[in-house]
Write a structure and sequence with these properties.
The complex is a heterodimer of chains A (464) and B (310). With 464 residues, chain A is α/β, with parallel strands linked by helices. Helix content of chain A is 41%, strand content 12%. The longest helix of chain A has 17 residues. The radius of gyration of chain A is 24 Å and the shape is globular. Chain B has 310 residues and is mainly alpha-helical. Chain B folds into two domains: 49 residues, no CATH class; 238 residues, Orthogonal Bundle (MetI-like fold). In chain B, 72% of the residues lie in helices and 1% in strands. Chain B has a two-stranded antiparallel sheet. In chain B, strand 1 and strand 2 form a beta hairpin. Chain B is flat. Classes of the chains: A alpha/beta (464), B mainly alpha (310).
């Protein structure tokens, strides 16, 4: 008896000891207070080439710490090469780089950014989970002055491309307010195809959506998996659905819904049409057999070995298909009529931010400018990745390669304002709701209407 | 003050003739011995646990200032269908992680205990191997086994059982048992090794007596082996039930909770709420509920043992 009393007392004491509000321990400047001194405007003229002279001290040795997610060998070597080039340009600046795998990175970056010795520069991630939280907590600096000085606003096609990196200073309104970061890479969803298989099936690259669906049927009839996809991971289905929705729903409606404009709905005809096509493809066996039990890396590996006709995903998978050589091609999912301006899903990739705790925000801005410049784009493209900025030397990329097609695809879509946002940005839980919902949809456990209702339910709960 | 206390002790020592402690009863100095271990345990286990319980009373995104929530997080969790579904899945996993392996372990033991067998050590090592492997390795290996073009489906096709092949981890209704069977594969070894060791403690004369009385293998198992293994069974149940309730790694590696929400378990939910959707308070509330359930179940199993002993 007395034992349990003692235990109670212990619990009470410990509770008192830790009786402080979580999060109250750390310095959390209010958003207004953190609208820190604008990073000094480097140079006078804005230049899209990023060749402006910096106004910072180029003699005193300085070390900047930098965190990113480029841990794969290819991208890691890009970053190291760029850092070496930056050091050559400004010998007094040394960049100390830390790279982590994406999942680990996302789980730790907010804590790292709120630590007293936060990295000067780090990658965030579009959405409420990371970027909004960083803005809200005042952990990163607004970059509008740098953007003007370095010409970032015109570097990435339509200025609207940067909207996904704008947040109100309280981190609640997305695509409005100051610019908080820019990205080195970009993403545009499209269709990888096996050139040899396409030829064997007697097909040519489809130029309309009907022709595309026809090619799926031809492949199926020819005992070739029409679309190879790792449905077990959920999100690969999400990306296929997003491409279909981008064609069947008004782009503005998609953007409004994703960025939480009140009154937006997922539960309407265009989106339901996309869901119907998706389910129809699954029923007709256009996704490889057992796709819901396959992981995306396995699926991509099989496509790289020559299995299947199409692989619908983003440019990040381009490197995986290197073993196919020139046998892999890429096109954007075609629209209703040949050559029509057809929206697809895409955006800048994960952004670089400057810590509000950095002592050298001006140098950090110069570094971000350097690694996102057209010259850096050449380095990024040389490793098979899609750079956000146009190439300084476009002829460096083989015009017959899938990468050349992807680069052109992104330029066309971003210049034409034809990029729709990723739907899983809409709420904190949308990844689970949407991707899990698509697994149910493609397994015919729900109807298209039930699917759109369920997704809208999540949205309404998050944006009452 | 000091003097008076001294006198009092002295007086008591004089009047009390029997020792204050009975022989074998713990002395207070014992607490000093456990102090270092307890301090570490308190610092790294109890305090964080209490801190977690405290956080569950707040709305907190993990970065900015938290706001008081009271029992809101608990009310939300209890009424959230996905939380209920997750706990139901955890209970189903007990069948695969705990009950199945204990039964299998007993069968193996029964088969081995009747006749001395050669190569017992090798056998024990083999069944115990899954316990030694890292869960991530197990998950990746089984993901490959379960792949629609993997060895399981290939074997079924080779046997002419094409109709049974499926996307094991992506099949609604099959995914949870499929993940559960990985657990069975892991924990059966532990149970078997515990039971085989336990059976060797049972005096041989009991088996002899049973045989003299004409008991067959089944009768012998229920009359001698099973009662003799009571303690081992309780230990095996405790360990494996806890394994089932806190199952995370294998599920995270193989399905991440999918397809749909078919393999969502409380730990997956806790991870997603804490690290994906910035809902640390809610994650802590689910974690506290899970801890409570683990404690209750553990105490329940211990009671079972004590009740039988009486």
């Amino acid at each position: 008896m007395s034992g349990s009393k003692r235990l109670l007392a212990l619990v009470a004491v410990s509770a008192l000891m830790s009786a402080c509000v979580p999060g109250s321990g750390q310095a959390t400047p209010s958003p207004t207070a953190s609208a820190a001194p604008p990073a000094s405007s480097p140079g006078a003229t804005a230049s899209a080439a990023g060749s402006t002279a910096p106004s910072f001290d180029t003699s005193t040795p300085v070390t900047l710490t930098e965190w990113d997610t480029e841990n794969e060998p290819g991208p890691a070597s890009e970053m190291d090469a760029l850092n070496a080039a930056f050091h050559d340009k400004y010998p007094n600046v040394t960049i100390k780089r830390t790279a982590k795998a994406f999942d680990d990175y996302v789980a730790t970056i907010k804590l790292a950014a709120s630590a007293p010795d936060a990295p000067d520069i780090f990658q965030g991630n579009e959405g409420y989970s990371v970027d909004a939280a960083l803005v809200k907590a005042g952990l990163i600096l607004p970059l509008d002055d740098d953007s003007k000085a370095y010409g970032w606003d015109t570097r990435f096609g339509s200025p609207a491309t940067l909207d996904v990196l704008r947040w109100s200073t309280d981190g609640t309104k997305w695509t409005q307010g100051p610019l908080w970061g820019i990205a080195q890479k970009a993403e545009v969803l499209g269709v990888f195809y096996n050139k040899r298989t396409m030829q064997t099936l007697g097909l040519s690259v489809p130029t309309t959506f009907d022709a595309f669906q026809q090619s799926l049927a031809t492949a199926k009839a020819g005992s070739v998996a029409p679309i190879v996809v790792g449905g077990l991971d959920g999100w690969p289905l999400g990306h296929i659905f997003m491409m279909l929705q981008a064609q069947n729903e008004d782009s503005k409606k998609i953007a409004d819904w994703t960025f939480a404009v009140p009154g937006s709905s997922f539960d309407d005809t265009g989106t339901q049409q996309a869901a119907t096509i998706m389910q129809d493809w699954a029923t007709k066996g256009y996704f490889e057999k057992g796709f819901l039990g396959v992981t995306q890396p396995n699926a991509a590996g099989r496509f790289a070995k020559g299995e299947g006709l199409y692989f619908l995903t983003g440019p990040w998978e381009n490197g995986t298909f290197t073993p196919m050589g020139t046998n892999v091609g890429w096109f954007a999912l075609p629209g209703a009529s040949a050559g029509a301006a057809t929206p697809t899903t895409g955006s800048l990739s994960i952004p670089y931010h400057i810590s509000s705790k950095s002592k050298h925000p001006d140098i950090a801005a110069a570094w971000i400018d350097f690694i996102t410049s057209p010259n850096a784009a050449d380095t990024v493209a040389s490793k098979g990745d899609l750079p956000a900025a146009p190439l300084a030397n476009p002829s460096a990329v083989d015009p017959n390669s899938s990468l050349a097609a992807i680069i052109k695809g992104f330029e066309d879509k971003s210049a034409g304002g034809l990029l729709t946002p990723y739907l899983d940005w809409a709420t904190d839980t949308m990844g689970d709701t949407l991707f899990g919902g698509l697994q149910k949809l493609t397994a015919a456990k729900v109807t298209p209407a039930q699917f759109t209702q369920e997704v809208q339910g999540d949205w309404t709960k998050a944006h009452p | 003050m000091t003097e008076r206390r001294g006198t009092r002790t002295g007086r008591r020592r004089g009047t009390v003739s029997v020792p204050r402690r009975r022989p074998g009863e713990p002395r207070l100095v014992g607490f000093v011995y456990i102090l270092p271990a307890f301090a570490l345990y308190g610092l790294f286990v109890l305090l964080p646990a209490l801190d977690g319980a405290w956080i569950s009373l707040f709305h907190w995104d993990g970065v900015t200032q938290a706001t008081w929530a009271g029992v809101d997080n608990y009310v939300d969790a209890l009424t959230d269908p996905i939380v209920q579904q997750s706990f139901l899945h955890a209970l189903i996993l007990i069948v695969f992680y705990s009950i199945g392996p204990v039964v299998l372990g007993l069968l193996v033991t029964a088969a081995l205990s009747r006749h001395p067998m050669r190569g017992l050590t090798a056998f024990r090592t083999i069944v115990f191997v899954p316990q030694v492997l890292a869960a991530v390795v197990i998950g990746v290996a089984w993901q490959w086994m379960y792949d629609p073009q993997g060895p399981i489906n290939s074997a079924l096709t080779a046997l002419g059982l094409d109709s049974l092949t499926r996307a094991w981890l992506g099949d609604f209704g099959v995914a949870l048992p499929a993940v559960g069977l990985i657990g069975t594969w892991v924990t059966t070894g532990l149970c078997a090794v515990l039971f085989i060791a336990g059976v060797q403690q049972i005096p041989v004369d009991r088996y002899d007596a049973a045989r003299v009385d004409g008991a067959g293998p089944v009768r012998e198992f229920f009359a001698v082996t099973l009662p003799g293994l009571r303690n081992e069974i309780v230990v095996a149940l405790l360990l494996t039930v806890i394994d089932a309730l806190r199952a995370f790694d294998i599920i995270f590696v193989t399905t991440k909770g999918g397809p749909g929400t078919e393999t969502f378990v409380p730990t997956i939910l806790i991870y997603k709420r804490a690290f994906v959707s910035n809902n640390v308070g809610s994650a802590a509330a689910v974690a506290a509920m899970l801890t409570a359930i683990v404690l209750i179940v553990s105490v329940g199993i211990r009671r079972l043992e004590e009740a039988r002993e009486r």
